[in-house]
Amino acid sequence: MARIKYYYDTETCKYERVKVKKQDIVLNLLGLGSLIVAVAAGLNMLFSSYFVSPKEVILKNEVAEMEFYYENINDKVNDLHEILIALEKRDDEIYRMVLGAEPIAPSIRNAGIGGVDRYQEIRDKDMIHGEDIISLSEDIDKLRRKVYIQSKSYDDIIELAENKAKMLAAIPAIQPVSNEKLIRLASGFGYRVHPVYKVKKLHTGIDFSAPIGTPIYATADGVVSNTTISFGGYGKHVEIDHGFGYKTHYAHMHEFIVEEGQKIKRGQMIGYVGNTGVSTAPHLHYEVIKNDKKINPIHYFFNDLDAAEYEKIIELASIENQSLGM
């Protein structure tokens, strides 16, 4: 039951009942409400200063987790950049140098990605970590482009290596007659006395003196481009086209065991030493041709001979004697 309030009226000398207006009641209630709200807000601020709500705890944990994974991914991207730099350095300074190719220009390796702003959508969202995300995205895009360029470079290197291997296999690099069967180097490259005409003529190959029937071997990979039987000149002879401008010629053979168009491997037997054509004794006349020019075969025995043997054969080749045939 509400308490009734009185006041003493000095004019009537009586206690009169206090009459409360509705407006006063409303104002009192509003004041009380405002006080309650202010106290509640103050208590909430005080509580928030010392205590964190479960929702805030969850959000803070999510932000911390995202920052951790961002740093982790950023570190991994940087590590990949370092690995790629090492691969690029090895590519330019080892692989391409060995294979005789030019290094890839830095302007190509470090070229950016043109076109419209690829990250406008992220900027439009006005995210708290938007710039960090854009920076990471740019690093990943650069890394992806550099990996693509490096992969294309490795494709080129594989092709260069295959061509290099084919070229090395195409260079005449062994003696056409085995050392075991070699009696002597009869005549070297250069001007020699012709065995029939008895005048000095350019001897365009090397004569290997050996018994009839001694095996003759191809000195490099190639394809038989010509086989000829003649009663004069080179007699029975074989020509092999090795590609890359190289050809070899084997003359005065007793017999050949290959045919035109046949693929040949280095060290494969192609026939036997003979004494056919214009020849004064059993021997093999061997020529090396580079870009249609006959050159000294003495420089193409590096797979068969050690340093001492190579010096000896150069000494024998330099002796100006009579050739044994054409």
From TrEMBL:
<keyword id="KW-0472">Membrane</keyword>
<dbReference type="Pfam" id="PF01551">
    <property type="entry name" value="Peptidase_M23"/>
</dbReference>
<feature type="transmembrane region" description="Helical">
    <location>
        <begin position="25"/>
        <end position="47"/>
    </location>
</feature>
<keyword id="KW-1133">Transmembrane helix</keyword>
<dbReference type="InterPro" id="IPR011055">
    <property type="entry name" value="Dup_hybrid_motif"/>
</dbReference>
<protein>
    <submittedName>
        <fullName>M23 family metallopeptidase</fullName>
    </submittedName>
</protein>
<dbReference type="InterPro" id="IPR050570">
    <property type="entry name" value="Cell_wall_metabolism_enzyme"/>
</dbReference>
<dbReference type="InterPro" id="IPR016047">
    <property type="entry name" value="M23ase_b-sheet_dom"/>
</dbReference>
<keyword id="KW-0812">Transmembrane</keyword>
<feature type="domain" description="M23ase beta-sheet core">
    <location>
        <begin position="202"/>
        <end position="297"/>
    </location>
</feature>
<dbReference type="GO" id="GO:0004222">
    <property type="term" value="F:metalloendopeptidase activity"/>
</dbReference>
